[in-house]
Amino acid sequence: MGRYLTCPVKEALGDEAFEIYFSRGRMAILKSILEGKLSLSRELAEYVYQCSECGNCTEVCHMTQNDNIILNTSKWIDHVEVWDALRRDLVKAGYAPLEKHARLIELMNREDMKNPYGELKVKKYEWAKGFSNIKEKGELAIFAGCTMPLRQRETLKNMMKILEAAGKEIAYSNDEWCCGSIAMRIGDYKSVEEEVHHNIDLFKKMGAKIVFSPCAGCYRTLKKDYPEYIGEDLPFEVKHITELLIEMMNNKEIPFKTPNSKTIKVTYHDPCHLGRHMGLYEIPRDVITNIPGIELIEMKRNKNNAWCCGAGGGVKSQFPDLAVEISKERIHEAIESGAEILLTSCPFCVGNLTDAYNEMDSETKENIKVVDLIDFIASRL
Q: Which of 32, 138, 143, 377 could be cross-linked to 213 through a Cys-Cys bond (beta carbons 3.0 to 4.6 Å apart)?
């Protein structure tokens, strides 16, 4: 710990990893492809998709972890964009998606589902039943996504309890489709055209001026990918749930209960889609430090140098064992910090970090809870 390692995949694979698994080798492969010395293939795709596209290679390449070096990196390479372009080429050439990825996209496009989990579409909206502060139309609208409504619905219910306690009404539609993030990260941008335009039109009809999401992946997709995809600005502003939470905290709208005398020590894991992809580092921390009775302890690697949980870029679905192995290192780092609770603000991070903790040998792990920031705040009301 404490070393500024570059690639989570390389470290998880250990001695089995060779050049093609991390950025230096991949750049060499790309150079050979551009020079016509190497062709795209299914075999190459198997290696390319063993990458979470976390972006840590960009940070290390740009030396952002070294306070003594100041460089103008505005024209430097963005590795994630390069890996994304390679994936697009593999899809266009017919060598991707891989088997499990193809299944996710198929389910996402099914009319009776519109989600990658294979659940009937009607199940996505069951979490919202019974909340009087949810309306069909309004200026503040939620994009709930697929993972939370279908796998972590209690977190969404806790979010509504917070908003209800703060006197907030939101708009939510039972015709929301998958944002398309999973297909975009795989490189199959053609398959999401219907989803992108449907969701944008949906929020227009709802009269939304602000669309927020509790999912880091959905937030990145709506805020960054959608405008790039349609070639123009969206007709509404996109925010992450933490941006709403800090606004409510600053306005003293969240009624926290008086804390016990014991201070709870927590640490925070930066989701890659929230942090390195979108630069949202300080707001989640401001939210945490505004919770009464809390002490925030940073892990050795944090913010733009945070270690990836391993779930992104389609790794969790196609290579689940690799994803969990990457996450175990992050759990160890959280334990080393001395924190009692590992907070994060991404459903994929919550799921994969929890899976990793549950699979770790009881003799090598200590008690630490993985908790979504929303759930933690709701428990303090």
A: 143
